[in-house]
């Protein structure tokens, strides 16, 4: 999956980011956690601005200094973004809300390398979201942002995996999971 992503050209990335921004406008909620895409992750900062323009309060992750749940801060525009702990990863510079901020959000849009039809999410392997998602309320909408080809029939699951209840893709928009039930 990672190798396939690395082969995606800039034109496709821009096209998909534009499509995702158009689809995300339909998903607004009071408070939405999102992420700033980096590398070959789908999306762009425009997606965050679309959410804000639609009236959502947007929270972005801050990677903690030691492995653990993500911290969160409000995104107030591109001028509020600074380079975080990892090179190329942008984070908001506003007041920290703590990991428990997830308990108060309506929807979480999170990156994934792939998601299967039952909602199993394949991340990048660091476990930050695995440690964070259990802090979300049971009613929080968990949406993995992926490319159309990254919705796959089956992925291996581990006991700590929190299942997604939707995937957002550039071509298909919001796809509710699990599929086939």
TrEMBL record:
UniProt EC number: 6.3.3.2
Superkingdom of this protein's organism: Bacteria
UniProt xrefs under InterPro entries: FTHF_cligase, FTHF_cligase-like_sf, NagB/RpiA_transferase-like
The entry's keywords: ATP-binding, Ligase, Magnesium, Metal-binding, Nucleotide-binding
Pfam families: 5-FTHF_cyc-lig
GO biological process: folic acid-containing compound biosynthetic process; tetrahydrofolate interconversion
Chaperone in keyword set: no
Gene Ontology molecular function terms on file: 5-formyltetrahydrofolate cyclo-ligase activity; ATP binding; metal ion binding
Reaction(s) the record says it catalyses: (6S)-5-formyl-5,6,7,8-tetrahydrofolate + ATP = (6R)-5,10-methenyltetrahydrofolate + ADP + phosphate
Record keyword Magnesium present: yes
Requisite cofactors: Mg(2+)
Catalytic EC class: ligase
Entry similarity comment: Belongs to the 5-formyltetrahydrofolate cyclo-ligase family.
Record protein name field: 5-formyltetrahydrofolate cyclo-ligase
Taxonomic classification: Bacteria, Bacillati, Actinomycetota, Actinomycetes, Pseudonocardiales
